[in-house]
């Protein structure tokens, strides 16, 4: 005869936790707008977004990365920063005693409250800090004459 066990909600939560962990570990992070590219995402750089009178300044910490390791894309009112931090090539085949730094591809997406003008976005990188300046688009007043049509009754 089969033995029945009572339902355990904590066991269900543990299974959910394992499923979520597996989902995060299998996440992808190429360009956040590209389809079909798969790499494991392990590194998430810290960022600050500051609004000034002229625009938005996005500062992203990217220590150890070169300019060619980072890409920027603009889609509508979103700015995406993505790239990859690679482990040092000269350490291939060694046994790490401790590994605290993260490696892998990363992707950050910033939704701004207005449309972005891609040609006016400026980016510079110095001492491991990426500065991206997105100027505010000046709304030009649109003047026009409105003609009135006459309808006969």
Describe this structure in a few short sentences.
The protein contains 1 helix and 7 strands.
Strand order of the largest sheet: 1-2-7-6
Classified by CATH, the class is Mainly Beta
Q: Please, what is the average pLDDT?
A: 78
- Shape type: flat
Gyration radius, in Å: 25 Å
Order of helices and strands: HEEEEEEE
Overview of the structural elements:
The chain has 153 residues and is mostly beta strands. It has a single domain (10-87, 104-135), classed as Immunoglobulin-like. The chain is 11% helix and 30% strand. The protein has a four-stranded antiparallel β-sheet with strand order 1-2-7-6, with no helix packed on it. It has a three-stranded antiparallel β-sheet with strand order 3-4-5, with no helix packed on it. The chain is flat, with a radius of gyration of 25 Å.
Secondary structure elements and pairings:
Elements: H1 9-25, E1 47-51, E2 55-61, E3 70-75, E4 78-85, E5 104-111, E6 122-126, E7 129-135
Antiparallel strand pairs: 1-2, 2-7, 3-4, 4-5, 6-7
């Amino acid at each position: 005869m089969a033995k029945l066990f009572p339902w355990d909600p904590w066991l269900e939560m543990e299974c959910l936790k394992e499923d979520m962990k597996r989902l995060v570990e299998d996440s992808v992070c190429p360009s956040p707008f590209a389809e079909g590219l798969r790499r494991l995402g392990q590194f998430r750089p810290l960022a600050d977004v500051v609004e000034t009178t002229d625009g938005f300044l996005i500062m992203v910490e990217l220590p150890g990365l070169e300019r060619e390791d980072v890409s920027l894309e603009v889609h509508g009112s979103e700015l995406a920063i993505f790239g990859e931090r690679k482990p040092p090539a000269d350490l291939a085949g060694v046994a790490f005693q401790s590994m605290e730094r993260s490696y892998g591809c990363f992707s950050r997406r910033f939704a701004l409250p207005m449309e972005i003008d891609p040609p006016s976005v400026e980016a510079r990188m110095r001492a491991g800090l990426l500065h991206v300046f997105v100027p505010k688009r000046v709304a030009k007043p649109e003047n026009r004459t409105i003609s009135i049509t006459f309808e006969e009754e």
